Predict the structure.
Amino acid sequence: MSSYLLQLGENIRSVRARRGMTIHQLASASALSARFLATVELGRGNISVGRLNTVARALDVPIEMLAADAQPTSPAFNQSTAFLKKLPPGQLRDAHKLLLEKFANVDASVRRSRIALIGLRGAGKSTLGSLFAQQLGVPFIELDKQVERASGVTLTIIFDLYGPSGYRRMEREALESILAKHPRFVLATGGGIVSDPANFNRLLGECFTIWLRAKPEEHMARVLAQGDRRPMAHNRRQAMRDLRRILCSREALYRQADAVIDSTNQTVKQSLESLARLLQSSSSGAI
């Protein structure tokens, strides 16, 4: 905690100096005492979130810039962040892809030879991924199973023992291992990989990602058809509400994929044909 408070104080002092403000001017703009702010800048004061937000508004910077657990960012980074925040969702996705393509140091042809399927449970990632890999003559890999093999225990035990953060760390290690060993593959990812920025950015930078999308009702029906009754642990109505909430919260992330296939009301054969056409059009530069 003490090291973080020191970093927080340094962040505030750095931004204040960049703004050309004295500590008394900041105190006046934030309605906080100069003595209290001096204590915070020295890393001796544990400022509340509400007061930190007041300081951020007085400095005209996002609160996350002050709260970052790292060295103060450069002006170029801050300016780029401010610019990106103003972009509408579609243009922001395009800008994100351009950054990955330019600075991830991965050749476009290499990315197209690594297919990663993302989406909620019941999207068909395992079924379609396995068949698609057979068509392409490449390995089919399920990331969750790779995590289980590497750890020697099931996902349930991993979450019970280490929690979500521990699982994400193991997921990252498994993904790095796959990328290092396999130049070509079809990968089925866990539905929540998009919620971890580091893992998802790695996936977007190294693989041609495809979001397998379907209506919530179809997701649920497919999971139940596989014999998995866990979604019905409480009741169907609550399960559907939870599923819609998860899909809504992740939709903007899933849309960052290179392409989308809607498998609603499609047979496995039809979805497989859509995947094949998609990859062909991608290789010809149509996407």
